[in-house]
Write a structure and sequence with these properties.
Number of domains: 2
Strand order of the largest sheet: 8-7-6-5-4-3-2-9
Structural class: alpha/beta
Strand content: 15-25%
Low-confidence stretches: none
Function: Catalyzes the interconversion of L-alanine and D-alanine. May also act on other amino acids.
EC number: 5.1.1.1
Organism: Kribbella qitaiheensis
Distance between the termini: 18 Å
CATH class of the largest domain: Alpha Beta
Radius of gyration: 24 Å
Order of helices and strands: EHEHHEHEEHEHEHEHEEEEEEEEEEHHE
Enzyme class: isomerase
Bound molecules: pyridoxal-5'-phosphate
Shape: elongated
Number of helices: 10
Family: Belongs to the alanine racemase family.
Length: 362
């Protein structure tokens, strides 16, 4: 009944937008973690690579393995893994933040390529600056032994979405110093990477040659980069009825009709990722107008106000889209749910089939 229509041409457009915005020679890593923000990792990965991305990035070992199982052969980088998972990560580049992790990688005979992570201010993983020299020296030793290759040095921005890039520039400076120290230890990292989607737009970073683009692939546009939303979430009216003034709607009757009203049932709910907290503000798009959600959003369904319109079962309902026809956008849903679009995308349930198209259909 519900479906998430993924516009692959938007993802292509977004990849190319980033390629134009970064320095010549800087490669794009398509970050397809969390099933590509709910869009379907393998399909998005293929599309992004086809549009010019050269790397795939994931947060977890299992996600990297799924991409390999789907037949993707591009370089993959993962930054979170359990020691016991390393055995499966042959042919996947892994992040290393300290000597203990380095030793785990060395003990895993299949894993070769590592990217050393320096904490430049995010304080969410990475080597502390005071342990960096020890880490780079240990890595250089093991590289000379032939057991690993340090392919990259990297870090992560904490304020990438701020148009004033002074915080990001400070982080870039620290990373550049870290790279110099790594070279002094004898390493020759091929890649230096720092920026996420927002940072790739706000921070001018000629010192880097790889950008890790996640949210931007899906048109989450934190910096006004001209990205296109990648998903339209659709449902259909399941039932329609006329109720009298003074009637309560949905659990606990938190909404009571002020007048006689036509109400329509939309069969999608919080089990599908529709945030329950958005009720009260949320609306959906049907018959060319926005129909407010009435009362509580339940697990599988909610009710909307069709006013006096004679809507009929089977009529399409847009939960969110690119806003081009007046429908709500995912940014609006995020606001109604007091969150960010990322969380809405990631919460989209397994019950909602994803359908892929190549052009925005309105
Ligand atoms: C999620 C993530 C990214 C992508 O960030 P976006 O803001 O979604 O582009 C890049 N690097 C790391 C380490 C991440 O966790």
């Amino acid at each position: 009944m519900a479906e998430a229509v993924v516009d692959l041409s938007a993802i292509r457009h977004n990849v190319r937008t980033f390629q134009r915005r970064v320095h010549t020679g800087t490669e794009v890593m398509a970050v397809v973690k969390a099933d590509a923000f709910g869009h379907g990792a393998a399909r998005v990965a293929r599309t992004a690579l086809d549009a010019g991305a050269t790397w795939l990035g994931v947060a977890r070992a299992g996600e990297a393995m799924q991409l390999r199982a789907a037949g993707l052969t591009a370089p993959i980088f993962t930054w979170l893994y359990d020691e016991t998972e390393l055995i499966w990560l042959a042919d996947v580049d892994v992040s290393v933040s300290n000597v203990a992790e380095l030793n785990h990688v060395i003990a895993a005979p299949n894993v070769r390529n590592v990217h050393l992570k320096l904490d430049t201010g995010m304080h969410r993983g990475g080597s502390t600056p005071d342990q960096w020299i020890e880490l780079t020296r240990a890595a250089a030793y093991h590289e000379a032994q032939g057991s690993i290759a340090v392919r990259g040095v990297w870090s992560h921005l904490s304020h990438g979405d701020e148009l004033d890039a002074s915080h990001s520039r400070r982080q870039l400076q620290l990373l550049t110093t870290g790279v110099a120290l790594a070279k002094r230890a004898g390493l020759t990292p091929q890649y230096v990477h720092l920026a996420n989607s927002a940072g790739a737009i706000t921070l001018d970073a000629p010192e880097c040659n790889l950008a890790r683009i996640g949210a931007g692939l899906f048109g989450i546009d934190e910096t006004g980069a001209g990205l296109r939303p990648s998903m339209k979430l659709m449902s259909k009216v399941a039932q329609v009825r006329r109720i009298k003034a003074g009637e309560g709607v949905s659990y606990s009757h938190t909404y009571v009709t002020p007048r006689d009203t036509t109400i329509a049932l939309v069969p999608i709910g919080y089990a599908d990722g529709i945030p329950r907290i958005a009720a009260g503000q949320a609306s959906v798009f049907c018959r060319g107008i926005r129909m407010p959600v009435l009362g509580r959003i339940t697990m599988d369904q909610f009710v909307v106000d069709a006013g006096d319109l004679a809507v009929e079962p089977g009529e399409p309902v847009t939960i969110f889209g690119d806003g081009g026809s007046g429908e709500p956008t995912i940014a609006e849903w995020a606001e109604w749910a007091q969150t960010i679009p990322h969380e809405i995308y990631c919460g989209l349930g397994a019950r909602v089939p994803r359908r892929y198209i190549e052009e925005a259909q309105r």
